[in-house]
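pls ignore typos typing on phone
adenosine-5'-triphosphate + seq
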Amino acid sequence: MSILDVEGLSKSYRQAGGESTLAIENISFQVNEGEFVSLVGPSGCGKTTLLMCMAGLIAPSAGRVVVKAAEVDGPPRNLVLVFQEYNKSLFAWRTVLGNVLFGLEVKGKPAREAEEKASYLIGLVGLDGFERHYPWELSGGMQQRVAIARALAYEPEVLLMDEPFGSVDAMTRLELEDGLLRLWKELGTTILFVTHDIEEAIYLSDRIYVLGRRPSRVIQAVEVRLGRPRNQLTTRADASFMELRNEIYKQTAPRLSSGW
Amino acid sequence: MTWSRESKLNGFLVLLSVMAAWELVSRTEMLNPLFFPPMSKILRSFFSLVFSGEILAQILSSMRRAAAGYLLAALVCIPLGIIMGLFNSVYRALEVVIETARPLPPPVVVPVAMLFFGLGDGMKVFVIFFSCLWPILLNTMDGVRNIDRVLIHTARTFGLSQGRAILKVILPAASPQIMTGLRISLAITLILVVISEMVGSSDGIGYFILDSQRRLKVDQMYAGMLSLALLGYLLNQLFLLFSNTFLSWHRGMLRSDK
Ligand SMILES: Nc1ncnc2c1ncn2[C@@H]1O[C@H](COP(=O)(O)OP(=O)(O)OP(=O)(O)O)[C@@H](O)[C@H]1O
Ligand SMILES: [Mg+2]
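k done
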């Protein structure tokens, strides 16, 4: 059953000169309940724009988004967006623990329970020992992980993530991918994940939507039929993993196949 | 740390030298000692006023008025500034009125306040209130307008209502600039409480200074000024203590350049 429906969504931005840029045009796709779906596409193709529309933070120019059978016309309950600009999204006046506790406070969770949950998530994103630090005392990659832990602690039914691992080093990234998959299974959350990294998308997802250049449309929907649980070594070495990778590369960068 | 302690010590030495010079100027009658009594005499008068409780009583009357006007201004202007910062329409509607009224030097409202409130406390509280309005209002508004959109979006995606977003995100995010407004207004309060008490009053430190001068108790006049200076210093220190505890995150952030 689909939990997220994007139907003919377009968004154009009015520019200072009075002209308008069409960022996305007539995008349609679906995400089923409990699925892990990724969006990949070139920089500037409108991925952030799309997520902002889905999160009810900006109004689309045409089309609509339906979350759990209700049309989005403001931030839907139980849907949280992890922002690409994680550093601007953290609360500078709250410590790491305070930031992660935010969503739990909003939900009115009892303090003891909330603190336990927050500590668990801080550990999961590899930040134990930094609970009392402020965001500006952390590196970019660490800040990004605080933002992820904060969103996960809220336990939304739908989680939209905008390049959440963009500032994290390759090794930590692999760990975070597995941590995210573990939590996704545990919580039964539906995740829509934006990334530039095609292999990351394959490793994580049940399905991948590939977006073209601006104004972008969905140019390809790829089903990922790799078994779960996945494994960074064996899954990535799987023949069908390579096949999917090549298929998507051929679509997004046709020149690659001709080689040097 | 050593630097700051050393500079404080130096500052203290300079103060002592100024006081010594004062003494000298008066004793050698370079300035008429009737109008410029020696520092030793001023200090003696100061301490006797302190021990008799007279100074404290005058300061307390002044502080009551100051606190009423100042807190009233904060209570009105922080919420109003937030609303103006959040809603451009409200800002646009009030912009002209504010830009017209703001350049008025605050003492100019004294005659108006006297018409409405006579010479009583109401007049002084109103004058202080009026002069404290602008720094608090404009700084709060500015602080709110400068909050990054992403932060507001974050509050919204976590499902906060407008009211809770104001309390949990907007107010803390704007608090450094609100604090700046409160600090500027604190200095203005001290000026206006003295002016309004000099215009018409039967107590308060402003009245005491003017009254001592009229009765040619010049050393008492200077003692009053001294206590006012100490009061200002003390209030500022208290404010710094408050804002440093409250905004320790912000000081740290500024130091870290992020
Ligand atoms: N607030 C805005 N005003 C005007 N144009 C905008 C605005 N935000 C985005 N755009 C334009 O819309 C297009 C899509 O931007 P968007 O941020 O959605 O891309 P993106 O796919 O998220 O890129 P990236 O992968 O680099 O994050 C870009 O051409 C951009 O210039
Ligand atoms: Mg983006």
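Chain A has two domains: 2-78+158-252, 87-155. The mean pLDDT of chain A is 92. more later
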